[in-house]
Amino acid sequence: MWRTVNQVKQDGSWGSWGPYSSCSRSCETGVRFRIRQCDNPKPSSGGEDCPGVNYEYQLCKADECPKQSGDFRAQQCQQHNLYFEFQGSKHHWLPFEHPDGKFSQQHSSTGAAGGVVLG
């Protein structure tokens, strides 16, 4: 019996998702992630890689932060204030929450009137 390319080619399939990592923050909202491997089976003999991504992120929420710690997003923005230049001008970073309410990822905008939203 002769083997053809189609008989020996093996496309990859995803294995199970691993466990989620711990939350990136010890208080308030952070991020955790998990990964999976393209090994059930691995692609071989010219087979296709698994479609999609091998990682998944999820928001996680811990207890509220102590009041003296301040807004974490504002702290992150403050760390970059000395380094941000856009279109020849230095800008001040501010925390920004998307108004559609569908998600609350961290974004920052400049403090200038009609500010520029990046992220």
UniProtKB/TrEMBL annotation:
One of its GO terms (cellular component) is extracellular region. It comes from the Eukaryota. Keywords: Secreted. Signal peptide: none annotated. Pfam families: TSP_1. The keyword Secreted applies. The keyword Secreted applies. This is Uncharacterized protein. One of its GO terms (molecular function) is metalloendopeptidase activity. Gene3D superfamilies: Thrombospondin type-1 (TSP1) repeat. It comes from Aldrovandia affinis. It is found in: Secreted.
